[in-house]
Design brief:
About 35% of the residues lie in helices and about 25% in strands. It is built from 14 helices and 22 strands. The protein starts with a helix and ends in a 15-residue tail after the last helix.
Length: about 575
C-alpha cells in the first residue's frame, strides 16, 4: 500500500495542470505550497494553492499517514502524509460569480489573485475591475482541525448598490475505490441547528439540493469513508449570507492517481449573497472549515464536541435490501462503538476489545440458548412419539388440504403441542448486533490502521495474509477460517430422518460458503468478531451435548448460532 501512495504522489506531480513538484520545489508562479502546523500534530496540513482562482489544488493531513508502517517512522515527508483533498483542475474554495454583473466584471474563478502573507494563513486579493475588491483569507485553526475562511467585499470607489451573488465550491475528498467494498459511504450533508440533518448520496451527473434553511445552518459538507469536510457559519452575517446548498459529483472521469471512480465523491456548492458596502467600507463574513476524521473521540476534542455528531447518525444508519432502514440498527451501532471504545481504553488493542465484546454478547445469551436447545429437544422428542398418528392424519386427509389443516389444529389442541416460538430467538437477537457491528465498521475511523496481531495490521481492511500472484487480490484467512468452523459445526449435527428437515439442513450447509464469499474482502474487525463467535458456538455446542446428550436424528435440535 505504501508503494501505491508513493507512486500516487509521483503521478500527481506529473499530471498536475499547474506543473511543478509536489514537494514545493521548482513550482511555477501560478502555484505555491504551504505547511500549517507540524508533522504529527492534530490538525496540521500541507496544501498547494493556485493563484488563478485562489483555490486549493490538494491538501495532505500531516497527522495521518498512508500506511501503518509510514506512521511508525521517526520522520515523515510528503510521501508519508495522507492525501485528504485532491481537486484536480476544479480547485476547492474557488468563488464563482453567478450571475455575472457589471459591478464586478472580473471572474473570480479564473482570474489571477494577488497573494498576501498573513499570520497563520494565506490571503488572496482580487480587484473586481469596477471599484470593488474581493479578499479571501484562510487562517489555520488547529483546534478545529481545519481553517477559518474569511470573505470580504471592499468598496474602494464603486457606486454600485444591492447584492452580488457568488458560489463557493466546497472541498472534494479523496474517495479511494477500496471504499466500494463497504457500500456507498460518500454523502453530502446539511444539518440545521435544530431538527433532522438532510443528506444525499452521489447521483452521477445530477445536481441535488440539500433542503435546509441556510439561516439556521449548523454545518454542511461532504464525506468519504473516514473523513469529513464541513463548513459552518461563525457569525450571524455569515449565516445570513448563505442562500442555498447544491450537491454535485466528482471526478468527471475515473482518477487513476487517487484510484477514485467517476462521480463517486460528493461536493457541496454554497450559494452566497454579499451586500455591496458603502464606499470605504467592507462586507465581511467568516466560516469555519473542518477537515478531519468522523469520530466521536475526535469530535470530543473540538471546542464544540456535538456540532458534527449528526454525520455519525447518518453513517450508523444501516442500509439493507435496497436502502431499507433496519429498526434499531443505529442505536445498536452506537452502543457497540461505545462498548468497543470502553474496552479499548482498558486493553489498548481494538482487536482484543472486539474479542471481549464477542464474549460478552455470546456469554450473556448462553443461558437463553441453552434453554432453547432444551425446549427444542423436548418438543422434537414429543413429536417423534406422535409421528405415527401424524402420518395417519396425513394419509387420511392427504387429498384434502383444508381438512388436513383443521385435523392438525385439533390434534395439536388434544395433545397440547405447539412449536416453541423461541426456537430461533438466539439468532434473532444476535442479528441486530451483527448488523450494528457490520454498520459501525463501515465508517469506524477508530479502527483505521489499528493492528491486532501478526499479519492483521489494519482492522478496517481485510486481513490479507499474502498477495495472490496469480490473481489481482489478496489471500484473506479470516473469512476462510470462519467458513471452515461453520462447516465443521454443521457437519457435527446429524441429519434429521424427516425428509423435509433433512433437505433444509443440507441447504443450510451451503450458507457459510455464500456468506464467506460475500464478506471475503470485508474489514478484518468484523471477521474477527465472526470467528470468535463461531469458536464460542463450537465450545457451547460441545457443552450442550455433554449436558443434554447427543442429538437424536429422529428428534432434531436447534441450529447453531452462526454469528
Amino acid at each position: 500500500m505504501s508503494i501505491v501512495f508513493r507512486s500516487l504522489f509521483l503521478s500527481l506531480a506529473a499530471v498536475s495542470l499547474l506543473g511543478g513538484s509536489l514537494v514545493g520545489q521548482g513550482e511555477p508562479a501560478a502555484a505555491f505550497t504551504r505547511e500549517f502546523g507540524r508533522d504529527g500534530e492534530p490538525g496540521s496540513f500541507r496544501a498547494r494553492f493556485s493563484r488563478p482562482g485562489a483555490g486549493i489544488v490538494f491538501l495532505q493531513a500531516m497527522d495521518h499517514y498512508v500506511t501503518l508502517a509510514a506512521s511508525r517512522e521517526d520522520t515523515h515527508g510528503p510521501e508519508d502524509w495522507l492525501l485528504l483533498l485532491e481537486n484536480g483542475s476544479d480547485h476547492a474554495l474557488r468563488l464563482f460569480h453567478e450571475p455575472r454583473s457589471a459591478a464586478f466584471p472580473a471572474d473570480p474563478a479564473t482570474a489571477e489573485w494577488r497573494e498576501e502573507a498573513v499570520d497563520g494563513g494565506v490571503r488572496f486579493v482580487l480587484d473586481g475591475g469596477a471599484g470593488l475588491v474581493l479578499e479571501k483569507t484562510l487562517r489555520h485553526a488547529p483546534e478545529w482541525r481545519g481553517f477559518e475562511l474569511e470573505l470580504a467585499l471592499r468598496n474602494v470607489s464603486s457606486a454600485a448598490v444591492g447584492d452580488l451573488q457568488f458560489t463557493l465550491a466546497g472541498p472534494v475528498l479523496v474517495n479511494a475505490r477500496e471504499s466500494s467494498l463497504f457500500g456507498d459511504v460518500s454523502v453530502a450533508i446539511a444539518a440545521p441547528v435544530e431538527g433532522e440533518a438532510q443528506f444525499v448520496k452521489p447521483v452521477p451527473g445530477q445536481i441535488q439540493a440539500l433542503a435546509v434553511d441556510p439561516r439556521a445552518l449548523s454545518f454542511a459538507g461532504s464525506t468519504n469513508r473516514f473523513f469529513g469536510a464541513f463548513l459552518w457559519p461563525k457569525d450571524d452575517a455569515a449565516a445570513a449570507a448563505l442562500t442555498q446548498f447544491e450537491v454535485d459529483t466528482l471526478p468527471p472521469r475515473d482518477n487513476l492517481d487517487t484510484r477514485t471512480y467517476a462521480n463517486t465523491t460528493t461536493r457541496v456548492r454554497y450559494g452566497l449573497r454579499l451586500a455591496v458596502p458603502q464606499e470605504g467600507a467592507a462586507t465581511t463574513i467568516t466560516y469555519g472549515i473542518y477537515l478531519g476524521p468522523k469520530s466521536y473521540r475526535v469530535f470530543d476534542t473540538l471546542p464544540e464536541p456535538d456540532r458534527f455528531a449528526p454525520i455519525l447518525d447518518v453513517d450508523l444508519n444501516p442500509p439493507c435490501c435496497g436502502g431499507i432502514t433496519i429498526p434499531g440498527g443505529r442505536p445498536m451501532a452506537k452502543v457497540l462503538l461505545w462498548l468497543l471504545g470502553g474496552f479499548f481504553d482498558v486493553l489498548g488493542n481494538w482487536g482484543v476489545a472486539i474479542i471481549l465484546l464477542t464474549i460478552l454478547v455470546r456469554g450473556a445469551m448462553s443461558p437463553l440458548n441453552f434453554r432453547m436447545q432444551k425446549t427444542m429437544r423436548a418438543y422434537g422428542a414429543k413429536m417423534a412419539k406422535l409421528k405415527p398418528k401424524l402420518d395417519e392424519l396425513k394419509r387420511k386427509h392427504g387429498d384434502d388440504q383444508k381438512a388436513y389443516q383443521q385435523a392438525m389444529i385439533q390434534f395439536q389442541r388434544e395433545h397440547k403441542i405447539m412449536p416453541p416460538l423461541g426456537g430461533c430467538l438466539p439468532i434473532v437477537l444476535t442479528m441486530p448486533i451483527y448488523i450494528g457491528l457490520f454498520t459501525a465498521l463501515r465508517t469506524a475511523y477508530d479502527l483505521r490502521q489499528q493492528p491486532f496481531v501478526g499479519w492483521i495490521d489494519d482492522l478496517s481492511t481485510s486481513d490479507a495474509l499474502f498477495q495472490l500472484g496469480f490473481w489481482p487480490g489478496e489471500f484473506n484467512l479470516l473469512p476462510l477460517l470462519w467458513i471452515g468452523l461453520f462447516l465443521f459445526l454443521q457437519l457435527r449435527m446429524p441429519l434429521p430422518t424427516d425428509p423435509q428437515q433433512r433437505q433444509m439442513q443440507q441447504i443450510m450447509r451451503y450458507m457459510p460458503v455464500i456468506f464467506g464469499v460475500m464478506l471475503y474482502n470485508y474489514a478484518s474487525a468484523l471477521l474477527l468478531y465472526m470467528v470468535t463467535s463461531m469458536l464460542w458456538s463450537l465450545v457451547e455446542s460441545s457443552l450442550v451435548k455433554k449436558v443434554l446428550g447427543p442429538v437424536d436424528p429422529n428428534v432434531g435440535a436447534m441450529a447453531p448460532t452462526p454469528m
